[in-house]
Predict the 3D structure of the following.
Amino acid sequence: MKNKPSVVMMGLGYIGLPTAALIASRGLKVTGVDIRQGVVDTINKGEIHIVEPDLDGLVHKVVKEKFLKASIAPVASDVYLIAVPTPFKGDYEPDLSYVASAFRSIIPTLKKGALVILESTSPVGTTRKMEKLIFDERPELKDNIYLAYCPERVLPGNIIYELKHNDRAIGGIDEISTQKAIGFYKHFVVGTLHPTNAKTAEMVKLVENASRDNQIAFANELSIICDKADINVWDMIALANKHPRVNILNPGTGVGGHCIAVDPWFIVSEFPNESPLIKKSREANNYKTEWVLEKIKNKALAFKIKNSKDPVIACMGLAFKPNIDDLRESPALYVTETLEGQNFTILAVEPNLTTCENFVLTDYNEAINKADIIVYLVSHSEFKNLETDPNKNILDFCGVLKM
Ligand code: SAJ
């Protein structure tokens, strides 16, 4: 492969865009492809359509220096990366249509010697399925291109740093593909690049997120038990974590985002009989959100009985986790929307957004003054050390007052 191979990045979302920009910053020519014309136009102006620390300056620089160009369609290239979404359908079956359509659109441009790497979270066996898709259409490419799976594992909010520094598991459809892919990632990753096969790399990604889901489910279950036992769960976990081999995570409003709430289902849908624990963890985390809702409604009812009026409820935080603006699969958003849908009087607070299509937002200081019941749904740093009237009803589901 050339010293500085040309690159096509299929998908310019939360993973594709930062990855494309980082590769371009290493002096490789990158064509970023997205089916959304608006996204293509925004990036070609040197601007970005997502919120992620340090990304705007980087994209602005690489676009200006002509190392990154966005386009609606792929061009012939040395390396192709695919980072498009893999959501699930209504029945929790993985929806591979975006991945398949990204592959279909690059197939006509593939030349002998090309390296194709799938990064999208995918059910086990997807890389092999895509291999078949390529060779069914272009049989002459058999043994003449390289194909590998390499999952991303970056944390939203810290993407640029983690893209560069995290270790990667890289699994080719054959040994040479693995080695070619490792050679490519060396251009921009300083973390260790671990060789494996495609199937193992696919499972590694799913298991990482299923493992975190399971650990959060444990913490959420403890919070429900402690509530019943009238024990402060945050103090209890802090003490349990003093044990050298115990490390319990934080209970919260539930699990949101586009990864941890989704990926474990890819294992469950393929191995339903073998994955009761993984499934139970998903259900436990979903149940926690419903439990939070019930707690708020009970508090509101108690207020109404005592004061003969409906309470004003401040919903503190809408994002799916602290200190970001991302609302995807957010349990806090779900709780707030459900309360509003059931005609409770709510004040929606999200300090990381200036506007929100779902609600008129209220400033957090104003909300805690006006509300009869303050409900902490996300532990944003703005909410820590807020002075609240001790006589107000406060429900802290995310430990913001403790941590
Ligand atoms: N959460 C808790 N308690 C905790 C930690 C998290 O309730 O102690 C909740 C968060 O509030 C949020 C959800 O879990 O609603 C997920 O947040 P997260 O910070 O654990 O993870 P994500 O979804 O932002 O990113 C995850 C990461 N995976 C792992 O840590 C194993 C990231 O490294 C992956 O790259 C990403 O999924 C992905 O794209 O798959």
About this structure: The chain has a mean pLDDT of 96. The radius of gyration is 23 Å. The chain has 13 helices and twelve strands.
